[in-house]
Structures are given as structure tokens and as C-alpha cells.
Amino acid sequence: MMESSDPPTYKEATTPPNVVSNQTSFCQHCGKAAFGGNYCAYCGRLLVQTAQPVSSGPQISYNKLPPIANMQQPAIIALPTSTEPDIQHKNDLAYKDGNRLIYDFEKVACCPGQIVGLDPRVKDELPWELESKGITKDQWRDWMVLLMDNQKLAPSIAGCLCMFCCPGLIPQSILCAMFCPISMNHCLKWLPCCYGDWYIGLRRWQDDVNYVLNQHDMHVKLMTYKPFQKAPKSKMHGSRIAGKDHNYEMSMMVISLTETETEKLKMESWDHGVNDGCTSGIGRIL
What we know:
Layout: H1 10-14, E1 25-26, E2 33-34, E3 95-97, E4 100-104, H2 128-131, H3 137-150, H4 157-165, H5 169-179, H6 196-213, E5 219-225, H7 237-241, E6 250-256, H8 259-267, E7 271-272
Parallel strand pairs: 5-7
Antiparallel strand pairs: 1-2, 3-4, 4-6, 5-6
Helix pairs in contact: 3-6
């Protein structure tokens, strides 16, 4: 069948091919029925359907590209974290000396504002040797906080001046050292120039902590060395001895880690060269 060479009529040109519509629309200008196309066959104006079919399916946005099927999300790879114990104690303030842990413990300060007792960071660094034997971080933190709280009773600058310097200076200091039991547990231990309450607190703290540590073959003891050359090495050894003379008493907190070392530590005295035989030294444990 030969195709016609005649140009299409207006209706043929404006009617989409093979479109079957089961919905009748009307021209809003002349009101005549429109059966297809973009323009009205009667008035020639642009058709606007008065009744639009409502789609119940999902709306498709033609301004966006459709999602790509089976698009794989990039996998998040978690890097393994190190769970190995810090056996060299590089990240805490403990110095390991054989089967002992050595902590710096500055019992008194010569200048206001200096840190006394332990470094505040110690309370947040549980040694792995203690953790491996069942000591928890909460236990360790509680122990260290109690020890630091007891330091509020330690000798102060005002107390030292009142007892040993003012107003008699050297004669007064000699008489107080010989006849005043400033370190003893007595009814006046609460005075700022007496240290009996501080030593009582240290002794009670050691007993409470060792009650737990001894069950794991460990032990803690506060020790003092004089001269400081006899003291074991520690993390802050260099800064502590800077500017100090032979009269400086270097104190440490020592923790034994094995049963054999614990027996040795229990037998040791806190006094390593202090030799405080004066009346003022009665009652000392550090």
C-alpha cells in the first residue's frame, strides 16, 4: 500500500499516534469536547484538561537520576586497637625496678603552689600488673584519691614557720626538735604545727590498701631516702633533685608485685637514711 504524498490534516498532525484515552476532556475556552492533541479543533486554542487522573503509585521526580540498582556501600574497616599491656610503663608515671613499681611522692613542698603527694595523673593510670591480678580501675582511683586527700594534713609552710622559726629561729628549732613530739598521736595533733594526724592517716591508708593487695601477693609502702642518691630511680627523679642539697629527703610510694618481693618489702623500714632520733620524729612513718 502506497503512502499518500498529501500533507496531513490539522487533526492528524495534532493527534498523537496509537494513544487510546478513556477520559474525555473539554476545552476551557469554547466548551467543546476535545478528543486529543494539544489544541482545540474548534477554536484552535491550547487545550488544558479539566480532569487530571490521580496516580496512586509513587511519585517520580524527573529532575533526578534514578537510583542505581545493587549499588554497594563502601565497607567501613575498623583498625585494630592495641590491647597489649604497657609492660614498659611508657604511658604512666610508674618506674619499674625489678619486681617493684616506684612512684614519686613529694611529702612536703618548700614553695606554695607546688604539688605534694602523688602526681594527679596517677589516679587515672592503673598499672597493668595490678589489673592482671584483679584490681579494678575504680579501686585504684579510690585509693589514690584518699591518699591525696590525706595530704591536706601534711606539714605546711605556716606550720613549719610557727614551730621551727618564729620567733626564736635556730634556738627554737633545736628545742622543738629535741622536746616537742610534733609527729606523735596526741590530743594536740590537730594544730597546724603538729603532724600526728597526717601520719595516722598515712598509716590507716596503707593498712586498708594492703588488706586487698596482700590477697594478691602484693604490698604498698611509703618510704623516704636520705641522701637522695640512695633513692631508686623514678620518672621525675631529675626534676625533684634539681637544686636540692644533702638535707633533702626523697620519698617514694613502692608497690611489690610478687610474693617473694612482698616479703622483702614488708621487712624493710620506711627510713632509708633519715635516722630521725629526735623527739619530733616519734610517730613518723614517712
